[in-house]
Design goal:
The protein has about 180 residues and is an alpha+beta fold. It folds into 2 domains: about 40 residues; about 130 residues, Cathepsin D, subunit A, domain 1 (Beta Barrel), CATH 2.40.70. The strands form 2 sheets. Strands 3, 4, 5, 6, 7, 8 and 9 form a 7-stranded mixed β-sheet that branches.
Length: about 180
């Protein structure tokens, strides 16, 4: 190998290393900015729960940059992303999410969506949770018309809790279940 070939080989190695360095830099940038965008869309990925002495459970949500309340939660113990929707009658689940959760379609019924009339399928959820707020036996629907991977958390869940909006925060409160009274028989 001549000296000239050595110089060419070193240049080629140098260019290869520069290209690899740029690829790593771009990859890290994409990773970092996708996480930033995720946090802008769902600022409630990690929820803090407060409990009062009376047993009231409270979760505070931050509004996202689009004006929506999006939060991490769970259905039947499986993590999902919720978008709170007081205009939705029930919990509306996109078909892909329903498959991931192992939910089976129940009876079909007509629903009115933002895109017009649609057919949804009834389903009951064993448990729905947002932070430490948990409800059992929640009415929901598998809604094919949803073009998202977020579950709309509607009034079949929200009607059982108290919620208050202040500025860019939404405070959810769940009172403790009332004690059952037995007549002793």
């Amino acid at each position: 190998m001549t000296e000239r070939d050595d110089v060419r080989e070193q240049r080629r190695m140098g260019l290869t290393m520069q290209a690899l360095a740029w690829l790593v830099f771009l990859g890290l940038g994409v990773f970092y900015f996708s996480e930033v965008l995720d946090k802008q869309h769902n600022p409630n990925q990690i929820l803090e729960t407060r409990r009062s002495a009376e047993g009231v459970v409270e979760v505070e949500l931050q509004r996202n940059k689009f004006g929506h309340y999006v939060t991490s939660g769970a259905i039947n113990g499986v993590p999902v992303t919720f978008m709170l929707d007081t205009g939705a009658t029930g919990v509306a689940i996109p078909p892909d999410v329903a498959r991931r959760l192992g939910l089976q379609r129940g009876r079909a019924f007509a629903t009115q969506t933002a895109n017009g009339m649609s057919v949804s399928y009834a389903v009951r959820l064993e448990e729905v949770s947002v932070g430490a707020i948990k409800l059992q036996d929640v009415q929901a629907s598998i809604t094919p018309g949803l073009g998202t991977d977020e579950v709309l958390l509607g009034m079949s869940f929200l009607k059982h809790i108290e919620f208050t909006q202040r500025g860019n925060k939404l405070i959810l409160r769940q009172a403790p279940a009332p004690a059952r009274v037995t007549d002793g028989s």
